[in-house]
């Protein structure tokens, strides 16, 4: 039996996972213009909220996932208001903001390790149903990842293109200072952007936790895959991010066809370097 | 009644004194021209009056209220609209959206679910008509010509429904047809009882449009008064010729 269908399915699953990470990442990047490593931490935090609620209170996956997403969203907003926003008001450059996000990232990772140990944990019941078609296997969590990717993409598309909020977000992304002068409440809009993007990061973390598992260090991987997909796609552009995600998903999974899976990160960085050299503005140039 | 008063306004950038103890007033409902050689501080003044940069010293009084610190989000609250010498429209948005975003509901939660209603669209269409961009609605702003972008920027200012309009060299680089549109808009604003502050190098336009003209040189006030009096002063001519 050919391995091709399975490779394709795996690539699509990876693409959908990266899409989930990148959508929130690009939404926030587009409005605030800095690489925020905390985006990865929030995925881990949401995963651990679900883990904690399940272990300590026996809460089932759906309500605990809702609380995990909410928790990530609130934490994302709190960090924005306590750390990044004050720094930006004082004129911090994107590089300074990125470094400070790494600081917060490290703190969160340490706290998670202290509270929950560094052990690998699986969310939800492992013996989940599997479906088979064309000789390829896909699990129920993986189907949910793909559906969630489609759902979040569609929701963001409507939010950005059909609502007044979306127009305000685009205006801020384009020229924040002018947006403020014409009376857009840039502060509230940006806060809401962080609430939404952090919530999406939380959802991604929970789904990854159910599919693969969680670890305090997962935030780094989530951040890097999200950032690479975003940069490859054209950073700040949510459509480009989707293309970048699937390019990365396919490249990684087909790349390890004949070699060890340990090479995945190398493939991701290889693609990043190729793009930074040959097409630094990404697939969809702004 | 003065809508804007500045007293001893000072602003410096590193070594450069861009605004130097500048005092002037602008009467409500008038058109005030600001002229002066390049680098004399006209744009810096506009930036301060619209809250984009802080002043070092001095006082700004808007409609009788003395403001210690004017911030950029105060501009709309105090009814101040502006355009930029180097046009700043929302490049990635359509012409229509550039304008609709101005009439976006202020409440963010509401905006999350709300779309633009007929009322908003009607207001925007009326402005599109005035700036002559009605058939460009769906074009992305970045595809417009320089002049069209300047008009779009003016349209955006009109929609804020401000009391004071700061236009920083709106005519520079425009074809006569477009310049005429802007002249009409400025006349209409005055007829509406609005105040216009116009930075401009073309003395014909200053004479035609302005009630008062302020002449700046090296950040200082060189002269102030009716154009027909000010424009014939020797020091004004010298400031320009010495450029
Ligand atoms: N952001 C800034 N940083 C440093 N210097 C500035 C800045 N803005 C203006 N200047 C300086 O202030 C002076 C006044 O400039 P400006 O207000 O643009 O003059 P004008 O609009 O009359 O041509 C110039 O010497 C200019 O170089
Ligand atoms: Mg200027």
TrEMBL record, chain B:
<feature type="domain" description="ABC transporter">
    <location>
        <begin position="4"/>
        <end position="243"/>
    </location>
</feature>
<dbReference type="GO" id="GO:0016887">
    <property type="term" value="F:ATP hydrolysis activity"/>
</dbReference>
<dbReference type="GO" id="GO:0005524">
    <property type="term" value="F:ATP binding"/>
</dbReference>
<dbReference type="InterPro" id="IPR017871">
    <property type="entry name" value="ABC_transporter-like_CS"/>
</dbReference>
<dbReference type="InterPro" id="IPR051120">
    <property type="entry name" value="ABC_AA/LPS_Transport"/>
</dbReference>
<dbReference type="InterPro" id="IPR003593">
    <property type="entry name" value="AAA+_ATPase"/>
</dbReference>
<dbReference type="GO" id="GO:0005886">
    <property type="term" value="C:plasma membrane"/>
</dbReference>
<keyword id="KW-0547">Nucleotide-binding</keyword>
<keyword id="KW-0813">Transport</keyword>
<dbReference type="InterPro" id="IPR027417">
    <property type="entry name" value="P-loop_NTPase"/>
</dbReference>
<protein>
    <recommendedName>
        <fullName>ABC transporter domain-containing protein</fullName>
    </recommendedName>
</protein>
<keyword id="KW-0067">ATP-binding</keyword>
<dbReference type="Pfam" id="PF00005">
    <property type="entry name" value="ABC_tran"/>
</dbReference>
<dbReference type="InterPro" id="IPR003439">
    <property type="entry name" value="ABC_transporter-like_ATP-bd"/>
</dbReference>
């Amino acid at each position: 039996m050919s391995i091709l269908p399975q490779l394709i399915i795996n690539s699509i699953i990876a693409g959908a996972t990266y899409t989930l990470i990148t959508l929130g990442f690009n939404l926030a990047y587009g409005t605030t213009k800095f690489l925020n490593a905390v985006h990865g931490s929030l995925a881990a935090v949401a995963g651990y909220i679900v883990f904690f609620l399940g272990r300590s209170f026996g809460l089932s996956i759906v309500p605990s996932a809702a609380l995990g997403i909410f928790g990530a969203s609130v934490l994302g907003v709190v960090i924005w208001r306590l750390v990044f926003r004050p720094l930006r008001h004082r004129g911090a450059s994107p590089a300074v903001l990125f470094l400070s996000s790494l600081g917060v990232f490290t703190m969160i990772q340490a706290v998670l390790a202290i509270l929950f140990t560094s052990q690998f944990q699986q969310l939800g019941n492992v013996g989940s149903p599997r479906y088979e078609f064309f000789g390829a296997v896909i699990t129920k969590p993986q189907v949910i990842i793909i559906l969630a990717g489609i759902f979040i993409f569609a929701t963001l598309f409507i939010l950005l293109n059909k609502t007044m909020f979306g127009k305000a977000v685009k205006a801020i992304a384009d020229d924040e200072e002018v947006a403020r002068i014409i009376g857009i409440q840039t502060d509230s809009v940006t806060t809401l952007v962080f609430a939404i993007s952090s919530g999406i990061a939380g959802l991604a973390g929970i789904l990854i936790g159910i599919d693969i598992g969680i670890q305090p260090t997962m935030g780094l991987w989530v951040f890097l895959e999200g950032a690479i997909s975003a940069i490859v796609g054209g950073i700040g552009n949510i459509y480009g991010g989707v293309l970048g995600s699937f390019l990365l998903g396919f490249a990684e999974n087909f790349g390890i066809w004949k070699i060890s899976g340990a090479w995945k990160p190398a493939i991701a960085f290889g693609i990043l370097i190729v793009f930074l050299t040959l097409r630094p503005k990404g697939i969809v140039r702004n | 009644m003065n809508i804007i008063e500045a007293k001893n306004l000072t602003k410096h950038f590193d070594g450069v004194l861009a605004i130097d103890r500048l005092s002037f007033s602008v009467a409500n409902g008038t058109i005030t021209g600001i002229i002066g050689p390049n680098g004399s501080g006209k744009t810096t003044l506009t930036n301060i009056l619209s809250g984009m940069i802080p002043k070092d010293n001095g006082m700004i009084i808007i409609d009788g209220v003395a403001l210690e610190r004017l911030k950029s989000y105060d501009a709309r609250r105090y009814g101040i609209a502006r355009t930029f010498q180097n046009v700043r429209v929302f490049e990635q948005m359509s012409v229509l959206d550039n304008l609709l975003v101005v009439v976006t509901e202020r409440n963010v939660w509401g905006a999350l679910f709300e779309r633009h209603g007929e009322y908003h669209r009607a207001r925007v269409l009326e402005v599109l008509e005035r700036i002559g961009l009605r058939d460009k609605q769906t074009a992305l702003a970045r595809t417009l010509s320089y002049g069209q972008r300047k008009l779009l920027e003016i349209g955006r200012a009109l929609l804020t429904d401000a009391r004071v309009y700061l236009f920083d060299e709106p005519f520079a680089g425009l074809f006569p047809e477009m310049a005429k549109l802007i002249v009409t808009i400025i006349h209409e604003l005055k007829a509406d009882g609005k105040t216009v502050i116009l930075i401009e190098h073309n003395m014909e336009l200053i004479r035609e449009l302005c009630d008062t003209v302020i002449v700046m040189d090296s950040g200082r006030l060189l002269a102030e008064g009716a154009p027909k009096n000010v424009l014939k002063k020797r020091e004004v001519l010298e400031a320009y010729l010495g450029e």
